[in-house]
Amino acid sequence: MYSNISLKSGKKAVLLDLPINFDEKTTLTKSISLGEKVFLLKYNRTSHEVRNIVEILISESKCLSYNILKLNEYSFFDMNGVYLVLKSLNLINHLDLNYDKIFSQITKLAKHDYKVKVEIADMMFKTFGEISAKTVSLSTRSGNAILVSGNNFFDLKEILELTKDKNIDVYTHSNLLVAHSLRGFQEYKNLVGHFGLTENNIVDFASFPGSILLAGTHKNSSDYLYRGRIFSRDYIIHSGITPIINDDYSPLISSSLSAKGFKKNNQRGEILLGFDKEVIFPKLRELSKKLKSGEISHLYIIGINSYSEIQKNYFNQFFGLLNDDEFVITFSHTSTRKNILNINVANFIPLVTYILSEFIKNYTLDEKITFILTTCDVMTISSLVMLKAMEAQSIYMCPCPPYIMNPSVFELLKDKFGVKETSSPKQDIARIRNIKK
User: Fold this and answer.
1) Same domain? 424 vs 283
2) Could you report the per-residue pLDDT of 10-35, keeping only the tens digit for each?
């Protein structure tokens, strides 16, 4: 595929020259054995720094691959993105790894991933309606129910269509929360709310008294608990999950009708989700003008919600330390202060990128803007690299436990990408203000 794409795009394919041979007789066991030999060859002749930058390249390749697949759901195949991923994989499979080439490739991936995320948001609006501010219920009501968990909007829409004339309520879960803010979903009266904000599938799935559809990416830690009640039409499903064959959802619907359902109404509050472009975009333009004039001395942009109590306390203190001439755009922790703009996009990264793209149309990222990232995973690395590729000059992120991120990779991000680790609100604000002066 790499060779064919290179040929079609007029680019030269750089083929591997490794001491291994694959053919139709190569077994899986032999493949693993050959791969281990190549790994050891590369490991022994590669510096610690290069091994860490390779890990970042792999993370960025994973994120771009994921977003290419999300864009492909809207029937758009990103050939240029595929070429970049294949070139990246080809680059790191050679024995002689070059730090500068890998760093350059990471930047290219990040810039392309930025464009893909914005395109995903655009396609989502065109397919499922424009976004709006919407109050979403977290309560449940008595009756039969289906829980749709994951990130595939097309699966959710299909279920809503199939059950709109039946006595079945539909609840979203996980990344599908954002669907409530899209006007195309707001027309469905059977979409009654969102279930669970704990990010704990075991708790949420165990307490849901109906059938569950896994729509796209999901956490697999609880699959084994629910034989016969969890369904999916994904290509790869785990033991205990019932496959949806030929888009026949009737077993899922029958299961929800035969389940006990919610016996009574349960009040659990509500959340404000989404935004109106006619309201937010003028505010972003006004904000850029005030930054340019000096009326606002510094802008803090806070990332998505990690649902951490520690971080909640951190930002409560952080907001209390703000000067009147400082401003915050937050996609997670909220406040009622007049110099804080709350935008809840339900942790949907393409929407965060979409809003950021609108802001930088009128303002170039400079030392007056500090990004604070609140999560610590593969997607976080991608966000860091993307911001650096866009020439962001001040990036902070939460401490990363070693079981989530390799400490040496974290050190490389701090050393080569200029990322700083958060400590305490008072110390962090002091550092940012001191550099600004």
Assistant:
1) yes
2) 888 877 766 677 788 888 898 888 88
Same domain, 291 and 425: yes
Instruction: Tell whether pTM > 0.70.
Output: yes
Query: Rounded to 10 degrees, what is the CA torsion of 124, 130, 131, 135?
Result: -120
Give the pLDDT band of residue 127 (cuts 50, 70, 90).
very high
- In this structure, are 310 and 349 located in the same domain? yes
The token pair that represents 324 in the structure block: 């009147």
Does 153 lie in the same domain as 108?
no
Residue 40's pLDDT is: 82
Reference 117, options 354, 432, 292; nearest CA is 354
Confidence of residue 99 (pLDDT cuts 50, 70, 90): very high
List of residues 6+ apart from 370 with CB closer than 8 A? 298, 299, 300, 301, 394, 395, 396, 432
Nearest Cα to Cα of residue 120 among 331, 281, 357: 357
- Nearest by Cα to 273 from 131, 125, 130: 131
Together in a domain, 413 and 285: yes
For residues 152 and 99, membership in a common domain is answered with no
Domain containing 91 equals 2-128
